[in-house]
Design goal:
The chain is mostly beta strands and about 625 residues long. It is about 5% helix and about 40% strand. The protein has four domains: about 110 residues, Immunoglobulins (Immunoglobulin-like); about 160 residues, Lipocalin (Beta Barrel); about 160 residues, Beta Barrel (Lipocalin); about 150 residues, Lipocalin (Beta Barrel).
């Protein structure tokens, strides 16, 4: 054990220039170079407590830069407390007017254990306590804690222990989390040392064994020879996975660690959400009834005034949703389906002739793909959106020998709770145009997971004309001459929507990374006016400088888009990066019944399934 004072006057061997990730000193102009021979510092152990290592910089006129087992420090005098035996490396360096100089590594051997250093309750929450271990996994969103394995937070705001705010909490499916990511584990233990052991089926190598230190005052975590578990796809996006990672939250069951994104997307905080494995294995979700949806008169949705006939969509016949109706897979076109589903253009003949006719009197006629028909009745429980069939059970093989659109069987859980009734579907999603339901997703409740397998049916006839309805929405009419002027909604200006028109921003809530008062001012007086003469549509824009431009407008029902070839829509000023370039703009609203009060969303395609969408409301 080294208890003597180690006063170091190192011989000059060379000048080493280092770039420290965690602490960068102020800039200096070049001056006289300090040699290693001039470095004066003291590293010693407290004779009354050899687990306490005392650091003292004695070189005058410089900024010290310590590298210690617990992280980096710029303090002239500092104390490092190491609870367990081991050989620990310390490096002393200084930044002066002449540049950076570093001494040789000093190894301090500790042979004693001081458990006083790990009595803080946070050590117990992280590891289970002295002589114990505790395993953590990424949160998949199913344990009543985080919404998924990763959240985002603005580093420009204070983000510290107990005082942080995330700005996006996506589900794992929204950011590409894989089964291998969820199988990763990390175990912290205090068994003859502070160890971290990982199992990483999502990373090359498969796992690691290392050591860690937690600073309970600064709420940081540092690891050596191992890293925290993370989403494999995000590893290239950050450079520091080991040193002084911020702990934002640590309870008996939840751990949240912030890692700075450093790629070309710009700095942002990844907040990794973990849950203790023991908690997941014993978690019993609260018995909460499935949420219901307010679609209005669901008999009218299915049967209209007398009857309506529906066919299974050949473009997107099935998907899965959570209990709120949010899609779990980004399948918005036939080409989006992965091979394991077996669904592609070759499978269309399996389903293209399927029809279901619902009548206002409660009768249902099913036409199978081979042309045979079956009849029965149906009833609707409006409050719970449940459609119950009697005398007939819909069952349509879609693809892969296993993807089948069929209804539920009766099922109770071990506690006697009814999870699914017999021969039922739930209306999970509805899309309308001009007040007429054109798309319905019937959901089959999973008995083991909180999700639905949904089957997409589209109206087989009497579908409202898209071009006509969009013309009415934009210009306020379809015959003779009419016009309508729009402005950007400053209360809810922008959203990022999927092809279903679903986004994530909220009215009255904006973020400074895309919006500011000056950007709002740049668009406040701009106007976009659509005019139709006997159904022929034109657009006129008044820009920020008061200039006027005009263009013809064409509408494409197949792509749900409009083309404005001779001008762009309203452009955002004040240095905004938002893209409003045309000529193609996608109509991201679906039902055009209330444009006068709710406005309309026009989008620019900015990703495979992402549309940067702008909210236009009718100008007064």
């Amino acid at each position: 054990m080294k208890t003597n004072k180690l006063l170091i006057f190192a011989s000059l061997l060379g000048l080493i220039v280092l770039a420290f990730q965690a602490c960068q000193p102020e800039e200096y102009s070049l001056g006289e170079v300090i040699s290693k021979n001039d470095l004066q510092f003291n590293i010693s152990q407290n004779p009354d407590d050899p687990n306490m290592v005392l650091l003292q910089s004695q070189t005058p006129g410089v900024t010290p830069l310590w590298i210690t087992p617990t992280g980096r420090s710029q303090k002239i005098i500092d104390t490092v407390r190491l609870p367990f035996p081991g050989d620990y490396n310390f490096v002393y360096g200084v930044e002066s007017a002449g540049g950076f100089v570093q001494a040789d590594t000093i190894t301090v051997s500790i042979t004693t254990t001081n458990t006083d250093y790990i009595k803080d309750p946070l050590w117990v929450k992280l590891t289970g306590g002295v002589g114990e271990s505790k395993t953590w996994i990424l949160d998949n969103g199913n344990y009543g804690l985080a919404n998924g394995p990763l959240s985002y937070a603005d580093p420009g705001q204070e983000q510290d222990w107990g005082n942080y705010q995330t700005n996006w909490d996506p589900a794992g499916s929204d950011i590409g989390a894989t089964d291998a990511d969820y199988q990763a584990e990390m175990t912290f233990d205090l068994i003859n040392g502070a160890h971290i052991t990982t199992v990483k089926p999502n990373e090359a190598g498969g796992g690691e064994s290392g050591v860690f230190n937690m600073n309970v005052n600064d709420h940081t975590l540092s690891t050596t020879d191992a890293t925290i578990i993370r989403l494999a796809a995000f590893i290239p996006n950050a450079t520091n996975w080991n040193n002084n990672l911020k702990i934002l939250e640590l309870t008996e069951n939840q751990l949240r660690i912030a890692v700075m994104r450093t790629n070309d997307e710009g700095p942002w905080l990844y907040v990794f959400n973990y849950v203790s494995k023991d908690y997941t294995e014993n978690y019993v979700p609260e018995d909460v009834p499935d949420p219901n949806f307010d679609f209005g008169d669901q008999m009218t949705i299915l049967a209209g005034a007398t009857s309506k006939t529906w066919k299974l969509s050949t473009e997107t016949p099935f998907n899965w949703t959570d209990l709120t109706g949010a899609f779990l897979n980004p399948w918005y076109a036939i080409t989006d389906y992965p091979d394991w589903t077996g669904y592609n253009a070759d499978a269309i003949p399996n389903i293209e002739n399927i029809r279901m006719e619902f009548t206002k009197t409660g009768d249902v006629i099913i036409t199978n793909n081979d042309g045979t028909t079956e009849t029965g009745t149906f009833s609707i429980m409006e409050k719970t959106n449940l459609v119950t069939f009697d005398g007939v059970k819909p069952s349509f093989l879609i693809s892969g020998g296993w993807v089948t659109a069929t209804t539920t069987d009766y099922y109770e859980d071990e506690a006697g709770n009814v999870i699914t009734g017999d021969n039922q579907w739930k209306i999970v999603k509805v899309q309308s145009m001009a007040g007429i339901a054109t798309d319905v997703w019937f959901g089959k409740r999973d008995t083991q997971k909180d999700e639905y397998m949904v089957y997409h049916f589209v109206l087989a006839g009497n579908i409202p004309d898209f071009k006509r309805e969009v013309t009415k929405a934009l210009a306020g009419g379809i015959v003779d001459t009419s016009s309508r002027s729009f402005k950007i909604d400053l209360n809810w200006p922008i959203d990022w929507k999927n092809p279903m028109g679903v986004g994530w921003t909220l009215p009255g809530v904006t973020e400074d990374w895309y919006w500011s008062d000056s950007i709002a001012a740049s668009v406040a007086d701009q106007r976009l006016t659509f005019k139709q003469i006997n159904g022929e549509l034109t657009a006129t824009k008044v820009d920020e400088q008061g200039n006027t431009t005009s263009s013809a407008v064409t509408i494409d029902a197949d792509t749900r888009s409009i083309s404005i070839p001779d001008m762009d829509i309203i452009k955002f000023g004040a240095g905004s990066w938002l893209n409003t370039s045309g000529p193609t703009y996608y109509v991201m609203s679906y039902d055009f019944q209330n444009v006068k009060n709710s406005g309309i969303w026009l989008g620019v395609k900015t990703g495979d399934t992402e549309y940067t969408s702008y909210h236009y409301i009718v100008a007064e």
